[in-house]
């Protein structure tokens, strides 16, 4: 269970080694699941810091004087992170980059139809969380607001037609059936999104026999935090592992942004530009501008590229000024 046996086999870890998986972290106390589907409360040994262990981690543990002690964190297949919020309650654990979960196979970004949406917000989600070895889906929740939900979907697909975007409602069983099909057997999924996007309600619907606390959205459309800690659940119905995470207000990363995540087409075309330092704005024999003129690339896609380039350059200048100070 919890992918432990598969993990041990993939990394050739001996059977006698005690490997568990972290399913919840509360301050300095961890809940780990073992290969026998038993749950243990555990702490870390003194030389292992609390900001080194996260939900989804596979860890080695030992029993010492009736205490379960995590002695090491095993190799991560990947990790999902965002820029840390220094308004967090656990300020002493704040770092430049806040790791949300480890060893994730699928990532579901929830965007509520009744909350303010911009393409810039969607793009920040992608730049921050998209990875080659993680399957990313966009779920537009509160599909009861049909016009709003469809408008968001079309805004995304009109510029980025290859993204997986699904509209659903937690109140409509037929749409939940379609959502359940997206969760793969024996895989680990992470749900992220702003407060009030419907993550906890969706997990309630996916788990059936487990009910999480949920809050109403404020009258101004902004969400209230319901989930306070990151926690992994097992859905017996889906045979899948699901990680819920606290909602957040800001989306960004301190890691270097890979523009090819969204603009791979432009980066490929730039190899055919006459000038190596082509800015794709005015230069002669620019392959990007030629593609737009010939109808091979949409003007909307090109405009999003220029806007994101402007934002990234502004962020770099801001970081450089901070270093000078």
Q: Can you walk through the features of this model?
A:
This protein is an alpha/beta fold. It has 3 domains: 4-73, OB fold (Dihydrolipoamide Acetyltransferase, E2P); 79-244, Rossmann fold (3-Layer(aba) Sandwich); 260-324, Probable gtpase engc, domain 3 (Ribonucleotide Reductase Protein R1, domain 1). It is built from 8 helices and 13 strands. It has helices at 4-10, 119-129, 146-159, 173-180, 199-207, 260-270, 287-293, 299-324; strands at residues 19-26, 29-33, 39-44, 58-64, 67-73, 79-83, 97-102, 106-112, 135-141, 165-167, 188-193, 231-235, 240-244. The strands form 3 sheets. Strands 10-9-8-11-13-12 form a 6-stranded mixed beta sheet, with helices on both faces. It has a 5-stranded mixed beta barrel with strand order 1-2-3-5-4. Strand 8, helix 2 and strand 9 (135-141) form a beta-alpha-beta unit. The longest helix is centred in the last third of the chain and has 26 residues, at 299-324. It is globular and about 75 Å long. 29% of the residues are buried.
| Sheet with most strands | 6 strands, mixed
The chain-level structural class is: alpha/beta
CATH architectural designation of the largest domain: 3-Layer(aba) Sandwich
End-to-end span in angstroms? Answer: 51 Å
Q: Which stretches are low in confidence, meaning pLDDT under 50 for 5 or more residues running?
A: 85-94, 209-225
Total helical segments: 8
